[in-house]
Amino acid sequence: MGHAPPHAITSIYTRNYTTNADANQASQPSNVSTAETARPPVARNWLWKPWYAKLWWAAIPVYWTGAVASLKVPALAEFYTSALAGYLNMLFFPPTALLVLGFGFVKAWLDRPLSGEPLSDEEIGELEQMRMEDEHWERLGRPHWSVDIYDPRSGGLYIGNPLSLQHPGRRD
User: Fold this and answer.
1) Can you tell me the distance from the alpha carbon of 146 to that of 155, in angstroms, rounded to the nearest whole number?
2) What is the pLDDT of residue 142?
3) Residue 89: what pLDDT?
4) Alpha-carbon Rg of the chain, whole angstroms?
5) How far apart are the two ends of the chain, measured CA to CA in Å?
6) Which of 29, 75, 129, 161 shows its CA 20 to 30 Å from the CA of 58?
7) With contact defined as beta carbons under 8 Å apart, do 41 and 13 qualify?
8) Cα–Cα distances in Å, from 137 out to 7, 11, 131, 133, 140?
9) What is the pLDDT of residue 76?
10) Distances from the Cα of 121 to the Cαs of 100, 116, 126, 134, in angstroms?
11) 79 closest CA partner among 55, 90, 63
């Protein structure tokens, strides 16, 4: 494992590891805020840098080249029409690789420190008050959920319930 630059962030998600010297520097007080030193995660660190990601991305065109060649080569056609090839189609489908390899990036993106100062208690209180007022105004124009035929919480009244008298497919 190589040495990370002094500005590297200690994180298993960003794949940047600090050395002992970096850890000593990090323990020293600094005037620089963490928002300025923390960089957002880069997708390339999950989608391409790991060895298994490179192997997977390199295998995808090889597999699909074989699939195209199976149209002309009967020996390959036998394999590419098998059940195993059906599973391999899913494994070597590029969006599958993107989805699986992207999970780490999404997790790191959601866990990243947010920039700016945290909200004060007064600001949080104001936001909660605004949300409650919005909910109150939203409810004024609609009936209560227990009598609303378009709300699934209304049980038998819900128009989507096959036992409901308002259900279009109900016949008595």
Assistant:
1) 8
2) 73
3) 94
4) 28
5) 74
6) 75
7) yes
8) 49, 45, 10, 6, 5
9) 92
10) 39, 15, 9, 20
11) 63
For tokens 């993106």, what's the residue?
Answer: 109
* Cβ-based neighbour number of residue 42 at 10 Å: 14
Report which residue type is found at 145: W
Residues ≥6 apart with Cβ < 8 Å to 119: 127
What is the token pair recorded at 56? 């997977």
CA–CA gap between residue 167 and residue 169 (Å, rounded): 6
Q: Which residue, 90, 112, 106, 88, is CA-closest to 40?
A: 112
User: In this predicted model, what pLDDT tens digit does every residue of 36-84 receive, in sequence order?
Assistant: 556 788 889 999 999 999 999 999 999 999 999 999 999 999 999 999 9
Among residues 92, 72, 94, 70, which one has the least CA distance to residue 82?
70
Which residues of the chain have a pLDDT value below 70?
1-38, 136-140, 166-167, 172
